[in-house]
What does this fold into?
Amino acid sequence: MDTEDPWLSDSQQRTWRRWLTVERLLPAALARDLQAGSGLSLPDFEVLVGLTESPDGRLRVGDLAQATGWERSRVSHQVTRMENRGLVRRRGCAEDRRGAFVHVTDAGRAAIEAAAPAHARAVRRLVFDALDAERLEAFDAALADISEALSREKDPVDR
It folds into this structure.
């Protein structure tokens, strides 16, 4: 492959534009579905997933930022909105007085437990129903390759 030519080939351009379309349309469709069915936003859902997958239902703000891929300030604003609705609560960290934990509340746990089945059905309908087993395997392999390349890009060794 010619790395000097900055332009995408026709097939790369087509694939890239399809990716951009999916990247734009899929989150919007999932957000509409989730909001209509549960009243949760995608960011609400993402925070609740991180907290409920934690063994004790809590994460430090920094760990929640890492789990979501968000900046700490975005996590803080999202947590404040969710606190106001009773889905999470923030508590200081005894070991580190400057740190804070975000805890899922009973209401937050109930909200995600109610929303998760419909969300999984929406993901299946919008993504996986369009793929047979062979294409799913190829899609998964392609995403693994892209994820690996991105993780190397984030922390470059040789540049």
Observations:
- The two ends are 19 Å apart (CA to CA).
- The first strand starts at residue 58 and ends at 60.
